[in-house]
């Protein structure tokens, strides 16, 4: 036992291709929806893009050495579909496979186990032009890409996640348009959910083997009602449905939640997709949980301020998030470590033997480099300590939690926020690409190595 955790518990940090790699035009990579979106004026808060990001494409070997030096034994990264198959379908680019082979080998040389995510939101632009996740064909192209990538790399990568947070892909990408491709399609965003999950199922069927473990990373969260009023309880039911049950039910029980389909008027559309459910609900080796915060919701009486505005909660636009007075991070996300326990326990009840990982957990704060060249991020350290303590308690109770990944290894391109939100346990000076281990990273190293 190290600090209350068993040997073999995976201690890692996570990143995602578009957020860290840069080198967007290098070695045959094709354009993704995030290239297009970030280069569209007004889409990114600070007007930046991922063209250079952390230059991880060139600096990965140093970054992995740094990760290993922190005492971490696992690295969760994502693979850019546009590097492997630049047009999304058709010709494979060997240089793309070579890059991820080198990255995985650099992990292994440093005693770090690679955990790869096949899709962390960067859809090849030609596939978006052909309809994106609103069309079924994209799921089939994802299967092809997954099969090629797995065949090329499964000797060096043993742990695979199909999708990262399909909730975000569907409801931010096609719901409120805050993320690429920036579309606002109302309840059609639920069709994207189905095609994403179908893509997951098709990919899993194509790549699963006894040699590795295969799962998916979701962002479920505890949803609380602001009061016991019937309206607030109904609001919580709706948001829990969209956020959690719309993903957990098909993946773990091969069914969609009937109430959500009814709320969104999509009962008939989903009935026509029923034949896909066995594939979507095929057994998983694990679920990855990305946890940041809980949500408390209410259904205010009277009209909402701007009815019909693009929403992340189609069919339940009236529901609002409520401030319960918890302290917040720079993102405005309330801090409640017990929420991590709550959501892990919820999933465990649905699938008692299924191994779970925390595949992302962390916090953004305004970090500054001191005159001594250090970053004293006490608040982030406290956040990590509290959430890791929840994991330790669960593990000591015999709960099947197999690993914890901090988001993120290093500061990076935080999607619609650009570089204005730092989540790293390592600070990145974007002008020089210098890395500085923050106090939270130094604390984690102490925790893991002493
Ligand atoms: C998650 C994303 C990750 C990062 C964190 C802060 O939703 O998976 O890429 O942006 O939030």
TrEMBL record:
Gene3D superfamilies: Glycosidases (3.20.20.80). GO terms for cellular component: cytosol. Its EC number is 3.2.1.21. GO terms for biological process: cellulose catabolic process. It holds the Pfam family Glyco_hydro_1. PANTHER family: GLYCOSYL HYDROLASE, LP05116P. This is Beta-glucosidase. The active site is at 165 (proton donor), 360 (nucleophile). It comes from Kribbella capetownensis. One of its GO terms (molecular function) is beta-glucosidase activity.
């Amino acid at each position: 036992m190290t600090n209350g955790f068993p040997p073999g518990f995976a201690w890692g940090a996570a990143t995602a291709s578009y957020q860290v790699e840069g080198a967007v035009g290098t070695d045959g990579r094709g354009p993704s929806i995030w290239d297009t979106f970030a280069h569209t004026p007004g889409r990114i808060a600070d007007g930046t893009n991922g063209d250079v990001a952390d230059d991880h494409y060139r600096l990965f070997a140093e970054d992995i050495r740094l990760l290993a030096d922190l005492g971490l034994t696992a690295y969760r990264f994502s693979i850019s579909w546009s590097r492997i198959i630049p047009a999304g379908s058709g010709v494979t680019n060997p240089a793309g496979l070579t890059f991820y082979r080198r990255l995985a080998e650099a992990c292994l040389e440093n005693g770090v186990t690679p955990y790869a995510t096949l899709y962390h939101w960067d859809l090849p632009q030609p596939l978006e032009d052909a309809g994106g996740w609103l069309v079924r064909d994209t799921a089939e192209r994802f299967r092809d890409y997954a099969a090629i990538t797995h065949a090329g790399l499964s000797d060096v990568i043993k742990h695979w996640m199909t999708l990262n947070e399909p909730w975000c892909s569907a409801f931010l990408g096609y719901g409120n348009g805050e993320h690429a491709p920036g579309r606002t399609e109302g309840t059609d965003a639920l069709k994207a959910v189905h095609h994403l999950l179908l893509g997951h199922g098709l990919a899993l069927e194509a790549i699963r083997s006894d040699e590795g473990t295969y799962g998916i990373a979701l962002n479920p969260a505890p949803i609380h009602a602001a009061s016991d009023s019937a309206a607030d309880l109904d609001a919580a039911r709706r948001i829990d449905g969209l956020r959690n049950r719309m993903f957990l039910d098909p993946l773990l029980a091969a069914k969609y939640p009937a109430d959500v389909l009814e709320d969104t008027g999509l009962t008939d559309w989903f009935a026509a997709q029923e034949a896909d459910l066995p594939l979507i609900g095929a057994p998983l080796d694990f679920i990855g949980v990305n946890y940041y915060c809980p949500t408390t919701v209410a259904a205010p009486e009277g009209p909402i301020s701007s009815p019909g505005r693009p929403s992340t909660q189609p069919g339940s636009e009236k529901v609002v998030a409520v401030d319960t007075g918890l302290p917040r991070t720079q993102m405005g996300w309330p801090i409640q470590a017990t929420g991590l326990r709550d959501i892990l326990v919820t999933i465990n009840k649905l699938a008692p033997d299924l191994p779970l990982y925390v595949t992302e957990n962390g916090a953004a704060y305004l970090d500054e480099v001191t005159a001594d060249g250090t970053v004293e991020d006490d608040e982030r350290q406290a956040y990590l300590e509290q959430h890791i303590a929840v994991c330790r308690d669960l593990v000591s109770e015999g709960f099947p939690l197999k690993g914890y990944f901090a988001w993120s290894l290093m500061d990076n391109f935080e999607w619609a926020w650009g570089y204005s939100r730092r989540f790293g346990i390592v600070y990145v000076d974007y002008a020089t690409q210098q890395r500085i281990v923050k106090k939270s990273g130094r604390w984690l190293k102490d925790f893991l190595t002493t």
